[in-house]
Each structure stands twice: as structure tokens, then as C-alpha cells.
Amino acid sequence: MNHTPMIGRHAIRNGALIASSEATVAVTSRAVQYGFSTYESLRVVEGRAVHLDDHLERLASSCEGIGLVHPFTSDQIRAWVADLIASDSIVEATLRVQLYGGEEPLLFITATPILTYPPFFYTDGVGVTTYRGERLIPSCKTGNLLLNYMALADAQRQGCFEALLVDRHGQILEGTRSNFFAFRDGSLYTAADEQVLLGITREQVLRACHHLGIEVIFEAVQVEELFSGYYDELFISATSMAAMPIRSVDSMSFISTYERTLAIKDLVRSWEMGER
Amino acid sequence: MNHTPMIGRHAIRNGALIASSEATVAVTSRAVQYGFSTYESLRVVEGRAVHLDDHLERLASSCEGIGLVHPFTSDQIRAWVADLIASDSIVEATLRVQLYGGEEPLLFITATPILTYPPFFYTDGVGVTTYRGERLIPSCKTGNLLLNYMALADAQRQGCFEALLVDRHGQILEGTRSNFFAFRDGSLYTAADEQVLLGITREQVLRACHHLGIEVIFEAVQVEELFSGYYDELFISATSMAAMPIRSVDSMSFISTYERTLAIKDLVRSWEMGER
Predict the structure, then answer these.
(1) In 3-state terms, what secondary structure has residue B104?
(2) Is A93 near chain B, with CB under 8 Å?
(3) pLDDT digits (tens, 9 = 90+) for B212-249
(4) What Å distances lie between residue A189 and A149, A248, B18, CA to CA?
(5) CA separation for the pair B134, A167 (Å, rounded)
(6) CA dihedral A253, A254, A255, A258 (to 10 degrees)
(7) A100 and A128 both lie in a single domain
(8) Claim to verify: residue A133 and residue A35 sit in the same structural domain
């Protein structure tokens, strides 16, 4: 199975430190079979979990959104994250907090290698595709991800880095694992909060725009208008990417120097380190 | 975790007989995290897997529908089902064939207690609710089931047995784990093939209607028309239920003697036994 090897020797299950090989669930578990689960994926940089409070807040609201009731408090989870980082002396990693609902909720924290991208991804930009489909509950980060999986697989078959999800009205809402932004006449367009997953990095991008004096218009980009050339610089944002410039959408090129995107990316990354 | 205890001491993983406690998957597996999986749930009655060929055919088409490539042939899976039944001398059970995709596909076969319902469910009928929502790829049986989970949980909170999924056009397409049928002027209405999961038992219901001289019209029931009293006998079908009469939909009663429904149910069950 497509299985990310864990770093370190441990994982957390319901607060207990376990061997990472024991971070498993029964295939007969209803919560696993139905994807009745929520999760967060975050970066550990210099031994610190970046934007942990924001991630825990979103985890709680995802659980509320799908009616996943569990006994774990944000303070507990925060302490367990610290336990895992300390026990395996983790300096850099992707941490995943994975919560399964049902009668006996199970919360796992696992550490896998941190996602980084070659520098030329940022200088040259990445290719993306468009894919028709709508997520079930856009604002919640849940196990209901088949659309995201299929859209990304389709993009990768075409040699692309990400797929942009286009809804029934022709609106580009978000990527399969990212939020989407596009410049038009000097303003930055992105879908409204209620239409997308409220990315932690999306928040930081909006904060960066404020600092850089870039006006943000919360209006989803129409795919036809994108292909009609109304937009001149595009990027996606995610925890692992910060802000990643887009070179092409399907067969249409958007090559530029990506100055605004890279300025936003540098600010977002600088805040990650500056948080302490 | 809400976890059905397995019967028997074994399960199958990729053809190998394993201890049922070993039927687990890593929480770091992408296929598990994304619900990139397909499955079938079938009955073992008198030591025989009922309609096994039909289930294996549907499993193959579910995999094709979501692009899940795997090396397992229907002949292999059929043999593994026989292995599990023999090794644990299973007479009666629910068998689940669970297939996870990705780079290293994993196929599990597990046996859990057979689902049966008290006789009064059939004589009195069951209460169901309506729930707005559309499944992602209706014809495929996949791990993308959060809508089904939430709709059923909502029904159960209201003391009901099942939820009927209503699409954006007000059409009742199917239940969360069942197909839906309704009589109107002596004809039986049900959603068209391409709109729903093609239930194995749905096929048997249609066959029973043919035998009983009941005309079937493949047209989804409009929820407004249902509540306007155009329909006089309703039921749902599933492997575990055969045909289960519906006593009420939300607050509207459909109490009757359910003669047609029970005649269909008896025929469907009789064929299960007569298959040999």
C-alpha cells in the first residue's frame, strides 16, 4: 500500500506513546470504513510545531462540522504533540493528527518526513490541471477524500503537480491539497471562506497581502475567465508549499517572474520561524 | 472505536490466512487516509457465499470506476472466500471484501456476525428519514462514505432505521445502505440504474417483480410527490434486508399490510437458498 514511512520510532495513540508500527486501525472499524474521521497535517521546524493552535482549532471545528464527538481536549493534544517531538527528538517533520470517531474515538499522532520542494518549483512555477467536482463539506478536513485523490492522480498522470477543483458553476474553488489565488488588475482573487477549506497557510497569505498592500477580493475565479486571459499571476497555498507559483493551467501558460507570489511566500515562511 | 467483532479466528490478507487481529492497516497509508478503496459486503448462508459472482463483478466495476488498479482476479478472490469459510467452518456470516488501492494494493476478507432483523421489522415496517445529499460516484462502492455515515447517524438520532438521500432536484435516489422502491397506481418506481448503486438485491427485487407481474418504472420518486400522497407502499432493499417495508418517511405514515413488499422479500430470500 502507498505508505509513507514514519520517522522516529514512536507515534501517539489516545495520549500513549506507542511504537510507530502499532499506529494501525482495524479494517472492520466503521469509522475507518466510512471515513468518519478528521485530521490535521502540520510542519515541525526546528523542533517546533508550526501554527499548532490554529491547526487544533480547525480540528475542533472539523469535528463539530461532521458531528464527530470525542473526549480529547486541545490542551491534551498539544501536550501529546510535544511528547512525540521530545521522545524522538524530532527537529523537522510533517506531523499528522488523525482522529477517528464512533463509539471509541481513536486519536493518532504520527511523524513523517517533512515535505519540501526543489527550488526550481518556486522559480519556474508548477503545472496544474482542472478537475470537475465538489467536496462534500468544504470547510471540514475529513476522511472523505476520494475526489481529491482521483483529481490529483489525474493531474499526476498528466505530469502536473496539482489539480484545481471546478464546481458546477465553473468556479475554481481550491486545489486538492491547497487553496487557489489569482491576480487580476493588481488585485488578488480567491474563493470566499464558506466555499473552501480554511487553510492555515491561506490565512497567512491573506496576512501577507495586508502587509504588502495587496487588495484581496473574495470572489472565486471563473474557469472561463481564467482561460480568457483575465488573470496574470496564479499560485496555490498549503502548509508544505507556503505560496507556490503556477506555470500553467491545463494547456494555458501563465509563466512570469512570480514576484508577488514569491514575496508572499517569503513573508509566510519568515513568520513560521519568527513565531517564537 | 465502533468496531464489529469478527467471528472465527481468521481473516484473509492478499490471499494469506491471517489471525483476525492482524486485519489492520497503517494510519499513515494514503489509500486509507483518502478512502481510495472499494468493498463488497455479502451473506454466507449455510456455508455458502450468496451471489458471490455478482458481488465480485461489482467489485471489479467499482475499481474500474475510480481507477483502482490491483492484481487480484475474481477467481483468486472466490478461492480466498472459500478458504476463509472452510478454515473457520463458517455457516452464517457477513463477509466483507475490502480492497485498498495505491502502490501496494491490500485486499482483506473478514467475517462478522450476519445481520438479521426482528420479524416485526417486516410486519410493522421501519421508519426512515430524508436527508439532502449526493454521493460522489453513485455506481461505485467505495470508501467515500461520510455522507452515508452522517445521514444514517441523523436518522438513528431520530429513532429511525434508514435515511433516504434526496438530490438537489428533490429526487429520492437511494438509502445510505439500501435501494428505494415505491408503489404508485400498482406500478413500482425506483431510480434509474445510472443514478444509484446497483444493488445485488435490487437486481433480485426487479427479478421478483417480473415473476409477480409487477410493472417497474425506472423513474426516481420526487420527495414532494411522496409527501403529497401519490405513493401507497414503500420499501428499501439490501443484502441484509432483502425487501424491508417502510412504515414512515419523516412524519408521514405509510402503514399498510405490505403484501407486495413481503411477497417480493419472500421470493428474493427463497432464491438465495435455491441458488445451488
Answers:
(1) coil
(2) no
(3) 999 999 999 999 999 999 999 999 999 999 999 999 99
(4) 25, 17, 54
(5) 14
(6) -160
(7) no
(8) no
Per-residue cell: A114:
517533512
CATH of residue B54? 3.30.470.10
Q: Is A139 left (phi over 0), alpha (psi -120 to 50) or beta?
A: alpha
Q: Does B101 fall in a domain?
A: yes
Calculate what percentage of chain B has a pLDDT beyond 70.
Answer: 97
pLDDT of B200 above 70: yes
| pLDDT band for position A110 (cuts 50, 70, 90) | very high
Quote the cell numbers at residue A246.
503556477
Closest residue of A to B65, CA-based? Answer: A150
| Chain A residues inside the 8 Å CB shell of B26 | 1, 3, 23-24
Cα–Cα distance measured from residue B93 to residue B95, given in angstroms and rounded to the nearest whole number: 6
Q: What is the pTM of this model?
A: 0.95
- Whole-number average pLDDT of chain B: 96
Do A82 and A123 fall into the same domain? no
In this prediction, residues A196-216 reach a mean pLDDT of 97
Q: Are A223 and A166 in contact (CB under 8 A)?
A: yes
* The three cell numbers locating residue A133: 467536482
Among B112, B139, B169, the domain-final residue is B112
- Give the number of beta-carbon pairs within 8 Å between A and B: 159
- Residue A28 to residue B96, Cβ atoms within 8 A: yes
Q: Are A189 and A208 members of one domain?
A: yes
Residue A5: inside a domain: no
Domain range for A186 is 119-274
Sequence-ordered list of residues with C-beta below 8 angstroms from that of B21, at least 6 positions apart, any chain = none
* Residue A76 placed within a domain: yes
B97 phi, psi to nearest 5 deg: -100, 115
* Cα separation, B273 vs A212, whole angstroms: 73
Check if B147 contacts A (Cβ < 8 Å).
yes
Residue showing cell 418517511: B249
Q: Do both A86 and A192 map to the same domain?
A: no
Cell numbers for B120: 416485526
Residue of B nearest to A70 (CA): B1
Q: Which residue of A has its CA nearest to B33?
A: A143
Q: What is the number of other CB atoms lying within 10 angstroms of the CB of residue A218?
A: 13
d(CA B241, CA B120): 13
Spatial distance between the Cα atoms of B157 and B152, rounded to a whole number of angstroms: 9
Tell me, what's the pLDDT at B273? Answer: 74
Given pLDDT bands bounded at 50, 70 and 90, which one contains residue A273?
confident
Cβ contact (<8 Å) for B67 and A150?
yes
